[in-house]
Fold this sequence. Notes:
alpha/beta, 2 domains, 6-stranded parallel beta sheet, two-stranded antiparallel sheet, 8 strands
Amino acid sequence: MASLIRRNINFLVCDMVGTVVNENGIIYNSLEKVLKNMGCIVTQDKKESWYGQEKKKVLIDTLYDMDSSMTEGKNIKYLLAKAEHELEVELTNNYFENGEIEVIDPFIHDFFSNLRINGVKIVLNTGYNGKLQRQIIEHLDLQSCIDDYISSDMCRFGRPYPYMIHKLMERNSIYDVNNVAKVGDTINDMWEGKNAGVGLRIGVLSGMETRLKLQPHADVIVNKITDLQNDDLPVFLL
C-alpha cells in the first residue's frame, strides 16, 4: 500500500474478472461454448485474444468471421441477440445459481477499505455489460468498499481504448492521469492503461496471462491485487 502512496496514486482502476473476482475462466469457456454451438470455429489462439476484451465485441467479431455460407440468409443482429441471450443464461447459471464465483482474496474488502481510508479511490471496470457487472458487485458485496464502477457498454469502445478510465476519472474529479493506476490480469488491461496515459500499470497473475506475457506491458507484476498492501514489494519497474 505504501508503494502506491509513494507513487502519488490516488485512483486505482481495477479490472474485475481475474483481478478482483475469481471465476476460474468460466466467461471464456462460456463464450467458446456459445459460439461453437452457433457453428463458429474457435481456436486456442482466438480464445486467448478475447482476454480482457468487451464480451459483446467478441461475439460480434466472431460471428462476422463465421463462414459466409453459414450466415447466408441470416440476420447478424438476430444471431448476436441469440448469442448474447445464451451467454447470459450460461453465466447466470454458473455464477449465481451454482455459486462458481468469489472474490480473488477473502481480505479484499478490507484491502480496498484501507486504501480508501488512506485517500485512494477504488473503481472497477469490466468488459461485461452493465447489468451483469452490477449483479456480480452486489453478489460479492463489493459496493460497500468501492467508489464507482463502469462497464464497456457505457462507452463507445471498451478495452484497449482509454474511454472507461477517462470517464471514471471525470466522474470522480481526478484531473491528473499520473495519479491513476490500472490493475489487470490481461495484456488488454495494460494496453488500456497505456492508452489512457496512467501513471502506473500493474499486472496480476491471478487471472489468464502469464508473467512472461504481461512483463513487456506492465510497470510491476504481483501475484494478486492484495499483494499491493505489502510494504516490502520490489521497487516498481520504470
